[in-house]
Write a structure and sequence with these properties.
mainly alpha, 3-stranded antiparallel β-sheet, 3 strands
């Protein structure tokens, strides 16, 4: 028996996969590991600002490819953004945002003529994922505060500080008095 379900919500998909996992010895179950706009948006929102800028340069500015030298000139060292991109995949699997086996959307490109250890020459995204991630970036820009994390371009929240009658400054005064004894 083969069953295909299309258009199901993420929650429904998760519940169905849990049910199928209970009967895994009787069934062969494959999950949809393709990137959707919703998954791409969740992925992008989960990234720190540098990694999100990195992905935007690959997807939007580079139409699926960004030269590593250009990325380095804008972002500096690429270790931080690339680590954040790679850690987002297992974090999303663990959180149930996408199924096990979902591939990283941005991959490294090395010089094929130099097989020894080397720096990356570029980063790319497959052609079918570029429009999906471009749509996700559009959604991010039109609704920047929706979801779990603020967008990379959002200003940092500024605390209001302490009012004159708050307890915290008084507590600090008591600590200062104790040290002066």
């Amino acid at each position: 028996m083969r069953i295909t379900i299309e258009g199901a919500s993420e929650e429904f998909e998760r519940k169905l996969l849990d049910l199928l996992a209970e009967h895994r010895h009787e069934l062969a179950v494959t999950a949809d590991t393709e990137w959707t706009v919703e998954r791409a948006e969740r992925y992008l929102r989960s990234l720190p600002a540098g990694a999100r800028s990195f992905a935007e340069m690959v997807v939007v500015d580079g139409d699926g490819y960004a030269d590593a030298g250009t990325l380095r000139s804008v972002l500096g060292k690429l270790n931080g953004p690339t680590v954040a991109l790679s850690r987002a995949i297992p974090r999303g699997v663990k959180a149930g945002w996408w199924p096990e086996g979902t591939r990283a959307p941005v991959t490294v490109v090395y010089d094929p003529d130099n097989p020894s250890w080397q720096k990356a020459i570029g980063y790319e995204m497959s052609g079918e994922n570029v429009p999906v991630f471009r749509a996700a970036f559009t959604r991010l820009s039109s609704d920047p505060w929706h979801g779990d994390a603020p967008p990379a371009s959002a200003p940092a929240a500024v605390g209001t500080g302490w009012a004159a009658m708050d307890d915290v400054p008084r507590a600090l005064d008591i600590l200062d008095e104790g040290e002066n004894r």
